[in-house]
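User: Let's play a game. I give you a shape written as tokens, and you guess the letters that built it. Ready? Here's round one.
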């Protein structure tokens, strides 16, 4: 029993042919996603604090007097993080959030890598170039994909709005194959989640194009 409780929930796949999630499954999945979200967020904060702390220490020891590494790290990390954020698909809030997190993660990764090497050596060597910082920033961009997956999964578990609920009801009234799906959700006494809403939207769009 305890072993089963410690297992991670399986990824949710919404589909008309599969029964909708019940309330207990939704609660479990939302709790797991929320915990995972804050785990990644704590990682972002830890990476940022570490990078800032190392940078302050390097500056206080005058290992990097011309501030060249600092400027390159901020420039490269900022642009890569901006690119990563605006490349994310989703609503405006999600894209703004991911852009901000992307800039922070990529900048901190590049800055921390350059300053940590400088701190170990005791001076700013010439071979710590923009290539090293670029590689670290791209590594931060790769880590960002895990954060992005959780944000997207959370967005699918949000309840629909009144207008979206009306859309589901109207669609169910016009398509017999949706009636059982919509009734199953209604009998549970809950609102559909966003994943169920988008599955219905895509199904209706496909039917409309094929008719």
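Assistant: Ready! My guess for every position:
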């Amino acid at each position: 029993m305890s072993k089963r409780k410690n297992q991670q929930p399986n990824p949710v796949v919404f589909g008309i042919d599969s029964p909708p999630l019940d309330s207990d499954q939704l609660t479990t999945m939302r709790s797991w996603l929320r915990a995972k979200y804050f785990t990644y967020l704590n990682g972002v904060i830890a990476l940022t604090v570490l990078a800032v702390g190392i940078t302050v220490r390097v500056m206080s020891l005058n290992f990097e007097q011309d501030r060249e590494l600092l400027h390159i790290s901020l420039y490269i990390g900022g642009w890569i993080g901006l690119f990563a954020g605006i490349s994310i698909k989703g609503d405006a809030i999600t894209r703004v959030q991911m852009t901000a997190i992307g800039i922070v993660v990529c900048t901190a990764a590049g800055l921390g890598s350059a300053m940590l090497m400088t701190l170990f050596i005791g001076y700013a060597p010439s071979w710590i170039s923009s290539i090293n910082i670029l590689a670290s920033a791209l590594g931060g961009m790769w880590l960002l994909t895990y954060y992005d997956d959780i944000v997207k999964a959370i967005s699918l578990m949000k309840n629909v709005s009144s207008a979206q609920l009306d859309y589901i009801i109207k669609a169910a009234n016009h398509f017999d194959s949706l009636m059982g799906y919509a009734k199953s959700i209604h009998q549970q006494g809950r609102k559909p989640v966003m994943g169920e809403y988008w599955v219905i939207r895509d199904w209706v769009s496909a039917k409309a194009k094929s008719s």
